[in-house]
Amino acid sequence: xxCKACNxxxxxxxxxxxxxxxxxxxxxxxxxxxxxxxxIAFYVVMLAFLIVTVFIYRDGTxxxxxxxxxxxxxxxVGFTFYDFKNIIELYRFPKINVLLFLGIILAPFITxxxxxxxxxxxxxxxxxxxxxxxxxxxxxxxxxxxxxLFVAVLPPIFEELAFRGFLFNQLNKITSAKATIILTAFxxxxxxxxxxxxxxxxxxxxxxxxxxxxxxxLWLGMIIHFIHNLIVLSLDYYYYTTLLEF
Length: 246
Hints:
Blueprint: H1 24-56, H2 62-80, H3 84-88, H4 98-127, H5 143-174, H6 177-190, H7 195-215, H8 219-245
């Protein structure tokens, strides 16, 4: 334990710093309260954003999509300034062995195919319909470009920054690493506003959270997130173009 005022190293049971006399327990409680307030603020702002998005994103135009994505990015960047120094450190690429890196590259291939075909089966059985993300962008000029940007590129950048960056850092200050991984994964799943998404996004978030905790970097999560989303989008694009041929 370290005194927040004078940086003197303290024993865990000390209530007052012997060097400057500050009440260390009270200071720690105040600090945790600040982190909790930031977590609550983040959750409230994200909830408000999702509600407003429902009203903004009505016609599904390219302009609306750009506006929504821009607002989301600005919100996340705004929150990161509260913990800028610690978040910047998460952009250092970790030293990992080749086999582990290959495993990290292989993981999203497994998750993408399992999720794609698994959720497809569930959609057909429960709702008698098939979901295709690429269909949301076919009306845009240069549809494939925008689909890749909005599905495969931007989410890994800003969602990892938001949930494994800012939110993870704040929660880790007030609870255990295990609870932090679980909570960030759960909130990450909730913002997708889909009950079916909870089936796979929650465990997916657990994997990303563990890698962020274990290697103290956002890069591994971003790589997995990007490859996973890109494969899912590629499968949707393949099946869409295949249907056009018939």
